[in-house]
Amino acid sequence: MKYKYNIGCSLDNLLGVRDFIRKSLKKHVASEVTMNEIVLALDEMCSNLMIHAHHCDPDHLLELNIATGPEGNLVFEITDDGTIFDINAFDEPTLDNLISVKRKGGLGIRLVKSIMDNIEYQKRDGKNVCRLTKKI
Amino acid sequence: MVHIKRLQEEGTDVLAIVGEIDASSSIDLDLAIAKSLSEGYTKILVDCSALEYISSAGLGVFMSYIEEFKEKNFKMVIFGMKEKVANTFNILGLDVLLTIVPTKQEAKKKLSEI
After folding, report:
1. Domain count of the fold of chain B
2. Chain B contact set for A21 (CB, 8 A)
3. What is the ipTM, given to two decimal places?
4. Global confidence as pTM
């Protein structure tokens, strides 16, 4: 299995990203809850990149690749050429802190880390590649 | 895309969320709650039975009202979530911070209790 989708960095395109993931994984992920988790984690990753690395410029592109890895794992790769935004290096605020400062951010990274089994970054041909793995 | 329908029942404002809430549409949820409060409602029911998806941007909207509701003794009860949507709240433990019940009947009961 191999699917590829190019996304302009506009938040209006997130719906299209989710539809692409749902269609691509339809035959591979039976559970509705698991499907939603995967869609959620990738939506969070794409919206983070759009906002923080590309300032929502629709002319900037993200590339999303979906493939099957060893032992039937699902492997997702998001490639872009913006400033690297490494969520592993991001210190998430506590939930109490989020409530008291009324910040509407910081939850997404926590979701991605809870849902995905592995998240790693690498440079490939001068671009940033974020590779997320989900065991099924 | 999201639509938020408002309906008033016995002094309670019922917000029915239809569709998907993401980073692009979470503003609509925020505006709907803000409008309800600006019209003087202190009891809000949020009907999620037609909510198909919510991302952290939408969760953040609910979170951002927790303190204000507590301070002013306003009440908000969320009900009718599909399993996949409830799971998103549960991953972060928001099911403990927010008042979430399965049915509208239970939501109305909860409003009178809390």
Report:
1. 1
2. none
3. 0.94
4. 0.94
